[in-house]
């Protein structure tokens, strides 16, 4: 049974809000995304900045309301239909750990306050004594100590702040942790420590993860399966090891080719694709063709006129490309 199943999820944003803004100009941030995450599984969403990863994650906890599609939790809970109270309970099970702890941790609060503030509004609140004990226990699990409860987030290093952020996510004993670029801002050595901590927590608590990263190498290390996203669509999905050995989609190959020490299929080196500085240009209209056609060296007439369907190239290996 899938812990969470996402089917044909869609979200578009109004490009220019305002009275005189041209009507009906949209950014198609998430454009028909489907995936599942099993119990105790880590599913990775990978892609360059601007391709819709954070929007997908926020849709999962209904920080944004979707424009289409369905999110099912444990087969029978339709997340889109949850009322306020049920939604609050669901959000105790599915926790979002933010990308940037420097901004998401209030610097004026003590670590105890940061950790307990979510709990106070939850079904688990039993008073300060219990909360303090739980917070102290979770802090030591993430490699900090009970004496850190009275300190302020600003007194900690970037890596330690990320540990506080993870502790806050864990305090409600969630089943699914959404980690949105949680190691992206850290030095490589600190990244390794945080990833090891997450692996450790995963096995100890039987957690599932939606692990978001722009770095395919980081995701390959941490995840069981990976979905590669481009301009709001999942272009390829496969077990992490298979993706590493046998990437099929031109975009996945581009991502691998830009990661030192990792290559795609192991075949002859491909002509490098033009890499991108900054954000992926997002889809502004419901374009008829393949979302990657503008950057793809294999793009043909067909690719601009019609959208490739997702096909299963091998068991569990999905790809959306006419040329595969
Ligand atoms: N609140 C928003 N309002 C308008 N556009 C947004 C909003 N959030 C994201 N977008 C746009 O949607 C696209 C996907 O963004 P995002 O989900 O943040 O991508 P990623 O996390 O992969 O970098 C981008 O073009 C971004 O500019
Ligand atoms: S469908 Fe065409 S444009 Fe799209 S990735 Fe495949 S070859 Fe490239
Ligand atoms: Mg993001």
Describe the protein.
The protein has about 325 residues and is of the alpha/beta class. It has a single domain (about 1-235), classed as P-loop containing nucleotide triphosphate hydrolases (Rossmann fold), CATH 3.40.50.300. Helix content is about 30%, strand content about 25%. The chain has 11 helices and 12 strands. An 8-stranded mixed beta sheet has the order 6-7-8-3-9-10-12-11, with helices on both faces. Strand 4 (about 70-75) and strand 5 form a beta hairpin. Helix 4 (about 110-120) crosses helix 5, helix 4 runs parallel beside helix 6 (about 160-170) and helix 5 (about 130-140) packs across helix 6. The chain is globular. Iron/sulfur cluster binds next to loops.
The H-level CATH homologous superfamily, spelled out, is P-loop containing nucleotide triphosphate hydrolases
**C-alpha termini separation:** 30 Å
Silhouette: globular
- Compute the gyration radius: what is it? 21 Å
Helix segment tally: 11
Sheet with the most strands? 8 strands, mixed
* Secondary-structure arrangement, i.e. CATH architecture: 3-Layer(aba) Sandwich
Determine the structural class based on helices, strands and strand pairing.
alpha/beta
Strand numbers in spatial order across the main sheet: 6-7-8-3-9-10-12-11
One letter per element, helices H and strands E, the order comes to EEEHEEHEHHHHEHEHEEHHHEE
By DSSP, the count of extended strands is 12
Number of domains: 1
Helix content: 25-40%
The distinct bound ligands, ions and cofactors come out as: adenosine-5'-diphosphate, iron/sulfur cluster, magnesium ion
* Residue runs with pLDDT of under 50 for 5 or more positions: 261-273
Average residue pLDDT: 89
Please indicate the percent range of residues in DSSP E strands (runs of 2 or more): 15-25%
CATH class: Alpha Beta
